[in-house]
Structure formats: structure tokens, C-alpha cells
Amino acid sequence: MTDDRNDPPDPFPTGFGSPPPSRFPPIEETVVAATADPPSDWNQGADAHDLPTAENRLMRLGRFAFPPGEPPDDEGLAARDQRWTSRVIVFAALMLVIFNARSAQEWSRQQAPGWVSTTVQQLSDVWGAQVAQLGADQPVQGVREAYHGVRDARFPGQPPAT
After folding, report:
1. I need a surface site. Which of 1, 71, 77, 154 has the fewest CB within 10 A?
2. 49: which DSSP letter?
3. Among 112, 93, 113, 114, which residue's Cα sits nearest to residue 103?
4. What are phi and psi of 32, to 5 degrees?
């Protein structure tokens, strides 16, 4: 005969006693008899698209004056995309001309002396002065100063930037 009193407890016990009585009464499941749908004013022949909508008179007039055309084909879509791309490029170029006039000055100073580089340098000097009077060069100056500040930053004990 073996002595079970010295064995370790079972890690996965399966024999449980009856649970303690619940303080809550059991839920009584009641089956509700299926009743017919309540009477309604739904019209089976109605179409949701036939309902009147509150439409702006200006929208109606615009649709009357400019009726929508047929959907564009592949060539029309390509032309629309090309127009959009062209507008974005022109807009970006104008923003660069206005807000980055200094880059044309720096570029013309780096070129070999000649009629073209001298003309571009003089025009860019005049344009840069006009843009500076409007204050459009301030964002570029702020970004440049922030960049130089971060570039020249050093850790404690590090030698200063040269």
C-alpha cells in the first residue's frame, strides 16, 4: 500500500464539490410568441428615389444651364491629369521664385563670369531686394537660422564648431 499523504497536490484538480448557492434567483426564459408586424403606412410599391428632396434653386439652375456631360474617356482623364500636374508645377515654381529668391543669387555667383551669369545676378539682386521689402524672405531666413543653430549645437565638453 502507498501513502498518498506525502504526495504533492494535483496541479490540475478535476473533482470539485457542488457550487455554493447563488444569491440571485435563476433567470426564467420566457418565449414570446411571434406576433405579426404592426400595421404601418409603408407602401410596398414606393421607391426611395421618388421622394421629394429639398434642393437648392441655384443648384437646379446650374444643372439646367450647364448640364453634366458624359463621363470622360481615357484621353480625357489623361488630359485632366496633365492639366493638374502642370498647374502644380507652375504653382511650385512661383512659390520658389517668391520665397527663395536668394538661391538664384547664389547660383549666379557660382557660375563663370559671362553675360548670362552677370545678367541673372543683377536681376536676382533686384528681385531679392523687392521680395525683402515685402517680407517674403522671412520664412526662409527663419528656417536657415534654425538650421544653423542645430548644426552648430554641441554636447557639453565637445569642442566648438569650426
Report:
1. 1
2. G
3. 93
4. -90, 130
**Global pTM value:** 0.45
Name the strand (E) or helix (H) holding 78. helix 74-99
Measuring CA to CA, how many Å separate 78 from each of 70, 71, 74? 16, 13, 6
Query: At which residue does the C-alpha cell 544653423 appear?
Result: 148
Backbone angles phi, psi at 20, to 5 degrees: -70, 155
Distance from C-alpha of 43 to C-alpha of 38, rounded to nearest angstrom:
14
Q: In sequence order, which residues have a C-beta less than 8 Å from that of residue 117 and are 6 or more positions away? A: 108, 111
Computed from CA positions of residues 119, 124, 127, 129, in that sequence, does the dihedral angle turn out positive or negative? negative
Residue appearing with cell numbers 473533482: 15
pLDDT in tens, 2-25: 666 677 777 777 777 787 888 887
Of 132, 151, 149, 129, nearest to 140 by C-alpha is: 132
CB-count exposure of residue 101 (10 Å: 0-12, 13-18, 19+): buried
Instruction: Specify the pLDDT at position 2.
Output: 60
